[in-house]
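Q: Please design a sequence for this.
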C-alpha cells in the first residue's frame, strides 16, 4: 500500500497509510483531523490527506525516527 493509497478503518474510525520505506501502517484517528474540520467526517479526512500526502509522510517519518 503506497502512502497515497490510504484506507479507512471503520472499526477504528481512523485513516491508515503506509509511509514510503516503512512496512507498518500509520494510523491517524478521525479526531486528529478536527483542527481542520470540526466535523472530521471520513470524506473530509480523506480529502485533507490526499491534498497533503507529503506533510503526512514527513510527520510519519519524524514519528518513526523518534
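A: Design:
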Amino acid at each position: 500500500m503506497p502512502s497515497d493509497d490510504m484506507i479507512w478503518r471503520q472499526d477504528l474510525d481512523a485513516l491508515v497509510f503506509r509511509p514510503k520505506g516503512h512496512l507498518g501502517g500509520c494510523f491517524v484517528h478521525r479526531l486528529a483531523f478536527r483542527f481542520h474540520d470540526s466535523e472530521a467526517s471520513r470524506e473530509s479526512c480523506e480529502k485533507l490527506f490526499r491534498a497533503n500526502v507529503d506533510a503526512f509522510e514527513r510527520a510519519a517519518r519524524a514519528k518513526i525516527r523518534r
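Q: Thanks. Anything notable?
A: Strands lie at 7-9, 14-17, 26-29. The chain has a mean pLDDT of 89.
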